[in-house]
Amino acid sequence: MNTIKKNTKPTLLSGIQPSGNLALGNYIGAMRNWVSLQKDYNGIFIVVDMHAITVKQEPAQLRKRCLSFAAQYLAAGIDPQENIIFMQSHVPQHAELAWVLNCYTYLGELNRMTQFKDKSKRHNDNINAGLYTYPALMAADILLYQTDLVPVGADQKQHLELTRDLAMRFNNAFSPTFKVPEPFIPKEGARIMSLQEPEKKMSKSDSNENNYIALLDPPDVLVRKIKRAVTDSGREITPDSMKNPGTGNLLTLFAVLSELTPKQTIQRFEGKQYSELKDELADALIAFLEPFQKRYDKILSEKDYLTNILEEGAEKAQYIARKTLSKVYRKIGFVAPGRS
């Protein structure tokens, strides 16, 4: 068995559901932060495949995406020697703790979850119990590892609030068992919007592939998507272009990729045609994603490399999770195996 490193660094936990295609918005909003934080935190990064089946999935495609997402975590720069990376379904304690937490979650709390309402509208042919109790599983994901910090976006704030409530409810009912996790709010970063509907956030699960930049898009696809991206009614860049949804989104993308400020980006393009911005942005995207894609291809070409990392990650995760679950089972009155 691999030894578990003992350290005093706070634990930071995050994960992405393996649906759709990992997009540039995921990298800029989450994965880039994971990489920059990994030296200061004990990082636990999960491919949350159990959450994915709340929506109908094609099994072969789900398996492929799960492995692809894990490889992209690594390609982004997550160090498997310093962090724990694993598939949620490889650690059965997630499902076990989720059941216990379901029994401490009130119906009214679940009824208030806006994400359930949103997903029910989008998948009204499959409004299932798992979709409804999703927040209890997310709470289990977090509480199993005595997590200190959880990066959260606007769409997950409710779930983290419920996780905190459940931790405090259980601790008060029995005795201190779970750390009460805090939200980790990264420094204000660029908000990447849809290429075709720039009033909406870029989403990896968007049904229209022209709305997002996938991290694995080949150069010809990147060029096509940028050329088709929505701009605004004008024809050239002005000092106010950053305020316009479509053109502002493209300028923001260029600023992020080129590590420029919004002001510097406007100065670079002021007076130029939108077509020039799109050409330069496409070139910047290709240059930015090429090394990422090469690392990804290398990871997948080494047959056992990814499998071994996921196995070791699951082993380390189970070591931590078993300790937490054993404590929970003892406190709620379950009989320990082999004892009467």
Q: What is the subunit organization of this protein?
A: single chain
> How far is the first residue's CA from the last residue's CA?
30 Å
Please tell me the total number of domains. Answer: 2
Q: What number is the mean pLDDT?
A: 91
* Largest sheet geometry: 3 strands, parallel
Number of helices: 13
Do you know the CATH architecture of the largest domain?
Answer: 3-Layer(aba) Sandwich
Read across the widest sheet, the strand sequence of neighbours is 1-2-3
Q: What is the CATH superfamily classification of the largest domain?
A: HUPs
In short:
By secondary structure, this protein is mainly alpha-helical.
Provide key terms for this protein.
Rossmann fold; 2 domains; mainly alpha; 13 helices; 6% strand; 54% helix; disordered N terminus; Tyrosyl-Transfer RNA Synthetase; 340 residues
Description of the structure:
It is built from 13 helices and 5 strands. α8 links the parallel β4 and β5 (182-184). It folds into 2 domains: 11-185 and 303-332, HUPs (Rossmann fold); 209-296, Tyrosyl-Transfer RNA Synthetase (Orthogonal Bundle). The strands form 2 sheets. Strands 1-2-3 form a 3-stranded parallel sheet. Strands 4-5 form a two-stranded parallel ribbon. It has helices spanning 24-37, 49-52, 59-76, 93-102, 107-111, 114-122, 129-143, 157-173, 219-228, 245-258, 262-269, 274-301, 303-332; strands spanning 11-16, 42-47, 84-87, 149-151, 182-184. The protein has 340 residues and is mostly helical. It is globular and about 75 Å long. It starts with 10 loop residues before the first strand and ends in an 8-residue tail after the last helix.
